[in-house]
């Protein structure tokens, strides 16, 4: 598995496994199957309601803890120093782990500076190996960096062929923040799996559209966390390191960029209100 090196020297697999919408035994079985398929990066969140299942799967797998990279997140309702400290303890207890590899602010709303202070303390205490954020637009991220003097290791944002985030990616690179893609398959929208451009490229390499998308992301240095409850698709998704897209193919995919979210805007007041009151909408 290829890896990226975060700004604090921690290594992170460039391809992982997401568990959003997987619950209970289904989630547990999926994580066990993903571990058997070779995945070592797993991405969950307090709001997904499946941290316990992920922890159970890790325990049953028998894989040494140091071989795994576990990410979790807390939502807007847990923003603030005290609430974040409590949310972290709740998550680490559910996951049944001694430490978290990556802890993320799920949404850029509420008392994020109080949360960031708590996260830094947990990081300095060795309870978290790296801290970062999700869904932070460049202006919000720069505000956090400048006013905390502590740069996030990761920004997890919507990234897929129809919303490619080239400008934001460049901004993150310039500020030494790793980009990570949620929704790499565009949540199945815009006919992504039957798209003519992606399908033609898939045929060229004798791969699937999903494999082409994941290769396109990782080839750009974007960490991806696809999700599937089906073992055959887990194996398919991880089998992307035996080919490389040509410059011509990369340019062809770039034409698909609409430069806007297919889901929602984090600058929409209604979305901000909803996320602040209920914690999340997606991802």
Automatic annotation (TrEMBL):
Gene3D superfamilies: NADP-dependent oxidoreductase domain
Keyword Ubl conjugation among record annotations: no
Record-listed E.C. numbers: 1.1.1.-
Name of this protein: Glyoxal reductase
UniProt xrefs under CDD domains: AKR_AKR5F1 (cd19133)
Family: Belongs to the aldo/keto reductase family.
Keywords, alphabetical: NADP, Oxidoreductase
Organism: Emticicia aquatica
Organism superkingdom: Bacteria
Record has tRNA processing as a keyword: no
């Amino acid at each position: 598995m290829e890896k990226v090196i975060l700004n604090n020297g921690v290594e992170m697999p460039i391809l992982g496994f997401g568990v959003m919408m997987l619950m209970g035994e289904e989630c547990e079985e999926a994580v066990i199957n993903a571990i058997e398929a070779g995945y070592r990066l797993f991405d969950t969140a307090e709001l997904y309601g499946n941290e316990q299942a992920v922890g159970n799967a890790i325990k049953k797998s028998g894989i040494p803890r140091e071989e795994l990279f576990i990410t979790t997140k807390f939502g807007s309702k847990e923003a603030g120093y005290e609430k974040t400290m409590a949310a972290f303890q709740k998550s680490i207890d559910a996951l049944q782990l001694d430490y978290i590899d990556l802890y993320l602010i799920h949404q850029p709303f509420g008392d994020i500076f109080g949360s960031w202070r708590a996260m830094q303390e947990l990081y300095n205490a060795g309870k978290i190996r790296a801290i970062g954020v999700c869904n932070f637009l460049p202006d919000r991220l720069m505000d956090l960096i400048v006013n905390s003097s502590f740069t996030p290791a990761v920004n997890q944002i919507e990234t897929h062929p129809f919303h490619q985030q080239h400008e934001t990616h460049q901004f993150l690179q310039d500020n030494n923040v790793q980009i990570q893609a949620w929704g790499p398959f565009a949540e199945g929208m815009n006919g992504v799996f039957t798209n003519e451009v992606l399908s033609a490229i898939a045929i060229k390499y004798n791969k699937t559209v999903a494999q082409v998308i994941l290769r396109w992301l990782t080839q750009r240095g974007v960490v991806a966390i696809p999700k599937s409850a089906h073992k055959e698709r887990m194996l398919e998704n991880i089998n992307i390191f035996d080919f490389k897209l040509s410059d011509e193919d990369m340019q062809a995919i770039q034409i698909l960029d609409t430069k806007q979210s297919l889901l929602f805007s984090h600058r929409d007041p209604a979305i901000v209100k909803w996320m602040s009151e209920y914690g999340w909408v997606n991802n």
